[in-house]
Amino acid sequence: MKYLIINSGSSSIKYQVIEMTTETVLATGLVERIGEAAGRLKNIAFPGSDRELTTVIEQPIADHANGMMLVIAALTDGEKGVISDTSEITAVGHRVVHGGEQFLHSTLITPEV
What we know:
This protein is mainly beta. Helix content is 11%, strand content 42%. It has one helix at 64-75, and strands spanning 2-8, 12-19, 24-32, 40-48, 51-58, 89-94. A 6-stranded mixed sheet has the order 5-4-3-2-1-6, covered by helices on one side.
């Protein structure tokens, strides 16, 4: 079971892919300077126990949708990726800081929430 954990800010996306059965981090990364002329993605993949593969892409990143497309491309890259396609992701978690006084702890997003 692979989980994609995202922390999206106003001009960045931080993320990790975790193999939950072993609690192993498979990849971690940062998309930064979204909406600016000099955007950047840095992805660090851990496909094996003794190696680390880093991808850095520097280019304009217009918005968060484009940033997520870069994340998916890095995670599924044939040489440096840690998944073959997005169907390997079992769940996606996202940090949201809008709960105010109503949600004080991690909360599953449901239609009622």
